[in-house]
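Researcher: I'd like a candidate sequence for this fold, 185 residues long. If you have to choose between options at a position, lean toward the conservative one.
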């Protein structure tokens, strides 16, 4: 294996892919190092532990969603329907092209009970997802119904992501976005 020069972000990106496909507990520092072209010992120059890489990976994806997807809900120049269309489109772009499903959803099931700092980041991510949906829905539904819809949609989307990866079929996943957009017709 040739040794290459890398950086923290490249390691995090490789780690995200490995954690999504193989799980947190089944991914070793050696696996991550190999995917990055580093020997296992070199990984410790960038991160003190696999737990730190895992947490940084969760934060990385959370920040990606904050910047590229959740932020759509707060764009005042778009109508609520256009916000929802863009929101669904950006989710689709991410999840339909991303092997292994949702890192935060996967690790919520696998590691959140063992690693409280993971749970904290995962809760913040899902809370931000719900808040972004509430922001889009609030002008069309009362606050209680907006919160209820947002909570159900995030749960449905996560389940659909799991089923899409399990059955290699995106139909149920795509229906959720269509139903969301249809709420504005």
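Model: Candidate sequence:
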């Amino acid at each position: 294996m040739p040794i290459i020069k890398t950086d923290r972000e490249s390691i995090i990106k490789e780690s995200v892919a490995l954690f999504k496909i193989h799980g947190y507990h089944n991914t070793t520092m050696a696996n991550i190092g190999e995917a990055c072209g580093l020997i296992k010992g070199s990984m410790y120059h960038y991160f003190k532990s696999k737990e730190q890489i895992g947490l940084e990976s969760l934060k990385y994806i959370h920040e990606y969603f904050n910047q590229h997807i959740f932020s759509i809900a707060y764009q005042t120049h778009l109508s609520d329907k256009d916000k929802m269309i863009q929101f669904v489109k950006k989710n689709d772009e991410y999840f339909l092209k991303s092997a292994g499903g949702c890192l935060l959803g996967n690790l919520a099931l696998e590691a959140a009970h063992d690693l409280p700092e993971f749970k904290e980041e995962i809760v913040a991510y899902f809370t931000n997802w719900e808040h972004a949906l509430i922001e889009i829905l609030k002008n069309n539904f009362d606050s209680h119904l907006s919160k209820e819809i947002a909570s159900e949609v995030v749960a449905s989307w996560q389940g659909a992501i799991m089923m899409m990866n399990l059955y290699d079929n995106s139909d149920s996943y795509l229906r959720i976005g269509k139903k969301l957009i249809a709420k504005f017709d």
